[in-house]
From TrEMBL:
PANTHER family: CYTOCHROME P450, FAMILY 76, SUBFAMILY C, POLYPEPTIDE 5-RELATED, IG-LIKE DOMAIN-CONTAINING PROTEIN. This is Cytochrome P450. Its cofactor is heme. Gene3D superfamilies: Cytochrome P450 (1.10.630.10). It comes from Oryza rufipogon (Brownbeard rice).
Amino acid sequence: MGKLVARAYGIIDELLARRKGGREAGEPRKDDMLDVSLDNEDEWKNNNPVIDRNNIKGLIADLFVAGTDSSSTAIEWAIVELLQNPQSMQKVKDEFRRVLGTRTEESDISQLPYLQAVLKETLRLHPSVPMTYYKAEATVEVQGYIIPKGTNIILNIWAIHRKPDVWADPDRFMPERFMETDTNFFGKHPEFIPFGGGRRICLGLPLAYRMVHMVLASLLFHFDWKLPEGAEKDGVDMREKYGMVLHKETPLKALAIETYNRK
Ligand code: HEM
């Protein structure tokens, strides 16, 4: 693990050095996290000695760790659930036909309620981050239970999302359950918290919201998806592999067939 972290930090060092060099050589700004961090580096150094180059490296590493697997695994689970549920796949395609022209744009997301419901249902069943951890800053009482200051708290998002007294037929993939509700991703509905909630809600939620919907929409709009012959016959391995991120036990293999008719 130590070696991997050192390697990741080495890559970030290189990125920072290259960008710093580029900025000094007058290359155009990219106005991304790296530029903003480097802009602030001197100010941080003078006014806040706690934040230095190491913290910037940590910040960039955190964004990679927290933002990559969590998003890609959500897309993989959505596609495999749709492959297992052809009626839902058909509804996604029907919605595209009604709403989209020849390509997908970020502004289309709000016009695609069924696609949004598919992502919600995917993250209900397979929350990319299945558990999250807190420490009580003060002694509090929650529903009659005393939680002493300093207690480590593990929140099992996966279990909350499958509670049978809250969710009808909890293990079934049914995007329709989200069509008639205002349940959203912002942590306001305690029974549905794929991005957590409160002060520590996922920092990348606005980015993840756009990115995951957009990638999913593009993959489903531009390609028809099919399972390979073996999987069609023997079924797909839907087991989850527990970890910081909830991967598929066996990565999905699927055939993508380009849909030329939309060009
Ligand atoms: C489908 C995609 C994603 C899911 C499901 C997800 C989920 C979560 C969850 C459940 C937490 C813990 C929240 C809590 O403890 O209440 C979290 C934290 C976090 N996420 Fe995400 N995330 C996703 C994508 C991203 C992206 C794209 C980024 C950044 C580029 C990101 C950055 C972070 C960071 C920095 C934290 C820690 C926030 C803190 O502790 O204050 N996430 N995420």
